[in-house]
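Example 3.
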Amino acid sequence: KQEVTQIPAALSVPEGENLVLNCSFTDSAIYNLQWFRQDPGKGLTSLLLIQSSQREQTSGRLNASLDKSSGRSTLYIAASQPGDSATYLCAVSYSSASKIIFGSGTRLSIRP
Amino acid sequence: EAGVAQSPRYKIIEKRQSVAFWCNPISGHATLYWYQQILGQGPKLLIQFQNNGVVDDSQLPKDRFSAERLKGVDSTLKIQPAKLEDSAVYLCASLLGSAYNEQFFGPGTRLTVL
């Protein structure tokens, strides 16, 4: 069964810290992997998309890495800010235009 | 470019009532998805359309849920009759069909069944 797991489920850190969110997936034959952000009561915002042939993607203070062989991805957030507080979802797909399989998310809180 | 539109944003109904949600994808996007997100969980696919044809509805509870995309553009998702466990956010997403499989999500409809 294709599953995505995110640990921890919740994380609270003081402002300014660098942090890492973890994602693991059971079937390593992924097509791509995405990290999303979800604010309370809102839809999903795509942060980074990594194709299966890539090892990492960067956008501003965010860096996502992908290790297909071990079935893992990490999202690194540098110099965290209170505005980064949200739920971060990891998701994988196994072919073009196929459904996305989501993890349960990590609820991140950045304390001022 | 306008995003994915969904309505209503919120809906409260009693169990055994019926409800319908509407989604208008990004113009030109051939693929449309409906996901259900229960509180504290990640979204789960209910149904996927390619133009007006169903590609995947394996996780749609067909005894009470139905969806259509008659002209290959906007779509409706219906629940009849609703159960307490249907309380969730219903997300619509669309995809142009590029090789990247980057789906764009609407704001969702939050359904509360009392």
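Chain B touches chain A through 29 residues (CB under 8 Å). Chain B has a mean pLDDT of 92.
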